[in-house]
Amino acid sequence: MILTGGISITDKEIEYVTDAVRKGWDEHHSDYKVKFEKEFAKYVGSKYAYAVTGGTQALWLSLAALNIGPGDEVIIPELTYFACSDVVKPLGATPVFVDILRDTWCIDPVSLNKAITPDTRVIMPVYAYGNAPEMEEIMALADKYDLYVVEDACPAVGTFYKDKHAGTFGDFGCFSFHGAKIMTTGFGGMVVTDNKELYDRVVFLDDHGEDKSRPDRFWQKEVGYTFYMHNINAAMGLAQLERIEEFVSKKRQIHQWYKDRLIKWTLNTEQPASRTNMWFTSILVPNRARAMARLKSRGIDTRPFFYPISMFPMYENQDNPVAYDICLKGINLPSGVQRTEGDIDLICEVINES
Ligand SMILES: *Cc1c(COP(=O)(O)O)cnc(C)c1O
Questions:
Q1: CB-CB contact of 94 with 49 (8 Å)
Q2: What is the average pLDDT across 337-347?
Q3: For residue 140, what pLDDT is reported?
Q4: Between 20 and 30 A from 52 (CA), which of 121, 150, 201, 233?
Q5: Cα(112) to centroid of ligand 1, in Å?
Q6: 120 - beta bridge partners?
Q7: How many angstroms does the Cα of residue 55 sit away from the middle of ligand 1?
């Protein structure tokens, strides 16, 4: 079976992780975590980075640090992983779902603008499959209405919108290192920000909200979390980060192979003057179930796009026609870094037969 994802592990990852297991204790318990955070911040161009156990936890901590709660609305595009709405609900806030653009599959600024109410506190743009949202327009709206921006850049390590890295426009940027993503720590994630106060608040909340200013220990000031990443995972993260440009190049090569062969189909597009990491090359097909079954019968695994979140029983269906169309037509094609041109040849042959 040709799988949709796939990662690359070399001696570097094994060496760093082994070192963390052997020596990463006592006074060295956070060496790799600290180094990974520092190098990640440097790579994306943020002042601060804080490593956590997942992209979901990164989003959750960001909203918690901004004191989002009952009565607050968080605007989310329909096409995203349910992690986005899952972190809004437990905080007591309300997710509001808006439409996406037909070309980038990211949040539609017009639909976003219409959804802003006096209760809106946060815009959560999503880098759908690595594609960049219209960050300039989104930031302009955030400025105009004085809203926070928490970027779900979970699948977008290596994506640049114009000359800025994904996740560095808003108050917080969130990333995922799940095994399906472009770089991995097994499970893992990162929160980045340029705001020292917000960073300090993330660190404080994620240490159970313990008051560290007191001379004694274990006095809790606020209900908190423990989402922080372990040093062993961070060792793997550091090794993968040192290879991120290699992964992006390979993903973009794979995308080019697809593009050259799937000329009559709609694939994901790149924003002008930007660089998409091409985490997944994706395609829109008229009959998704049939296309996926036919590919599967030839040993090729694919992934359907996420459903529009407002379709789920916990929410009310929304009139977001582009998302309701594209979400039901899209599939992610095998895009793991180990894929060869021969694999792509075979996949495209099957697609083009229909
Ligand atoms: C992967 C992903 C997440 C969640 O990341 P986890 O590390 O699995 O928690 C959230 N949002 C988007 C858009 C993603 O692609």
A1: no
A2: 98
A3: 98
A4: 121
A5: 21
A6: 73
A7: 5
Structure tokens at 199: 């960073």
Write down the pLDDT at residue 289.
97
* Closest approach atom of ligand 1 to CA 59: 10
DSSP-derived letter for residue 77 is E
User: pLDDT (tens digit, 9 = 90+) per residue, 264-291?
Assistant: 999 999 988 899 999 999 999 999 999 9
Phi, psi at 121, each rounded to 5°: -120, -35
- Residue listed under structure tokens 């870094």: 337
Q: Strands of 94-137 (E only): list them.
A: 94-98, 120-123
130 DSSP 8-state letter: G
Residue range 194-245, pLDDT digits in tens: 999 999 999 999 999 999 999 999 999 999 999 999 999 999 999 999 999 9
Residue type, 306: F
**Beta bridge mates, 48:** 193
Cα(228) to ligand 1 centroid in Å equals 16
> Which DSSP string do the residues of 196-250 spell out, in sequence order?
HHHHHHHHHHTTTTB-TTSSSS--BSS-----BPPHHHHHHHHHHHTTHHHHHHH
Which pLDDT does position 95 carry in this prediction? 98
From 76, 128, 130, select the one nearest 105 (Cα to Cα): 128
Is the predicted pLDDT of residue 157 greater than 90, yes or no? yes
Helix (H), strand (E) at residue 149: strand 148-152
Rg over alpha carbons for the chain, rounded to the nearest Å, is 20
3-class secondary-structure state, position 189: strand
Backbone φ/ψ region at 65: left (φ over 0), alpha (ψ -120 to 50), beta: alpha
Ligand 1 proximal residues by C-beta, below 6 Å: 54-56, 80-81, 83, 126, 152, 154-155, 176, 178, 189
What's the sign of the alpha-carbon dihedral 43, 45, 46, 47? positive
Residue with tokens 């060295």: 28
- For 64-102, write each residue's pLDDT tens digit: 999 999 999 999 999 999 999 999 999 999 999 999 999
Q: How many CA atoms lie within 13 A of 324 on its CB side?
A: 10
- Residue 158: phi and psi, rounded to 5, are 100, -5
Q: Bridge partners of 175?
A: 190
